[in-house]
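Summary for the funding panel

The consortium committed to producing paired sequence-structure records for every protein in the target list. Below we show the first two records in order, beginning with the earlier of the two.
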Amino acid sequence: MEENHPNDITKNQNQDIQKLNELIVSKSAFIGLMRAEVGRAIIGQKNMVEKLLIGLLSDGHVLLEGVPGLAKTLAINSLSKTIGGDFSRIQFTPDLLPADVTGTLIYSQKTGDFSVKKGPIFANFLLADEINRAPAKVQSALLEAMQEKQVTLGNETYKLPSPFLVLATQNPVEQEGTYTLPEAQSDRFMLKLVLDYPTIEEEREIVKLNLSKDEFPSPNKVVSTKEILEARQLVKSIYMDEKIEKYILDIIFATRNPEKYNLAHLQPLIRFGGSPRASIALAKASKANAFLQQRGYVIPEDVREICYDVLRHRIGITYEAEAEDINQEQIITEILNKVEIP
């Protein structure tokens, strides 16, 4: 049997990547349309919109944190309008019950049977607004749905529609009346975005838009759920070299065992590092970022671009770190500066 020469394998691989590049360019046209439509309602916050698209393409839930009034809800609502899918919104409050999220069984006196009343979670896009305003038992009602894409009511299990994406907003923990998300819950979110105030120029445009006599712009539907599911399959096929895989694993392992990466000074600051779910999320999100750049292969910049959003809620810091005013982002920066780039 004739063996392939290494040069022939590389040549074939390059040809495959070239074909994939061409396919991605033709199949990703809807991304530009989505950006334009969301941009009609949202001034600035381009980073937030890009990361929401990454979550959508890599089948990952997204958590947005920021003070009220930064267009978190508007951005998620606008994104869902560009896609032909079902949209539900739940306003989380301290008196919310798990059944208000998942649904419940209702007893009928006429028939003597229980019937299922499905909750708002049965939608393609679920906006969980101010998720940390509700106690842990309500937040945990989302766990099965987020991980298994199903909900159990009574003795029956019901599949959720596809695609299914939870886009949650939360207020900073320092604010009054908030609960800290349990680690098991926050780990289910692929990305955590931290939003800042708009620039003065952007805010001027926001004020003008809201004071204009015209009706507030509403995004149009530009893509179907079928196209989104096809794009997700294409994202999975994006090429990731073994060196990039090792780079991702080195970053995650440096959060667990920093001393092995010449970062021993971080050891007393880190309570726990990223789980295997973090490695999977970083790999998936890096591929989605390459798709947004219309590339059929992942480069180190894709990993670095998305790293903060994947890891900031997956690294636990110690009291010592808090006392020294050191946060997760500073730790991630040190790790990225130290781990060798392929």
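The next record, for a separate protein in the list, is shown here:
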Amino acid sequence: MPHFKSLNSGDSINIIAPASAAPIERLNNGLEWLNQQGYEAHLPKDLLKPRLFFASPLENQVRHVKEAFKSDSLVLWCLRGGYGSARLIPYLEKLKKPAQKKLLIGFSDITALHLYLGQKWGWPTIHGRVLTQMDPKAKRRPDLKIYRQLLEGKIKSLTYSGLVPMNEAAKKSRTVSGSVTGGNLRLLECSIGTGWELEARGKILFLEDVGERGYSVHRMLVHLTQAGLLEGVRAIVLGDFTEGLESDGKDRTREALQAFADESSIPVLRGMPCGHGEKNHPLPFHTKATLKLGKRGTLKVATGF
């Protein structure tokens, strides 16, 4: 399994914005958090030149990412999600794979980059908070502490316990193994037919989303199924599905996910503290993982350090 070098105080972290922009105040909060942890943030002066849905023009975003790959920094931390990361992939395909592995951190729209770096370059990545979510004033978010411990190599694995089985396949006591992949459900559906299409056979698939109503969530899962992308998946673990209210004010995403689980022969479990909810614990992708099924599921994932 590929390993990353752990960080020390004073090490640099590259900030990239491959998707949407963010208010300068949110950027400054994230930079302050990094400074509190003893890290040095490197970011281009033209990181934020908002255009339409994007943090900056495409040529800027491509240049920023290329410069980050060439830098001495070991970590690429994404500013935020939103929309736009997939546009960079054709340009990544033209790059020679860097000799030094870089650790990508981000989630939501960053799912496209997670898939590309993991599937094409064989790099572990971290599905986790974007920089704008690293609040220097937040003292009661235990998951924030985990990020520093992870980066410094103090944590070799992360365990997520108390996962709730949603179908009969998940209730049978047994252990499945395989790396974790996945991310934002909408982005995974968008990968169909592309060069970075989700490759989940033999793996544990993690799913989360925001702003999708129940019928839309179920439709995307049916699409992934009929497109063959769920064939050979060892298990599916669900994170947060938020802001999916219907016009009558009800949230039917849980019902939609349960309907999918009832229809599936793949073990499906919920309860991962990851995604667009208040908690967003880091989840390593493309590393060794084991999932114990039964009355309550437990997922243990190597961090890659």
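Regarding this second record: The radius of gyration is 18 Å. DSSP finds nine helices and 14 strands in the chain.
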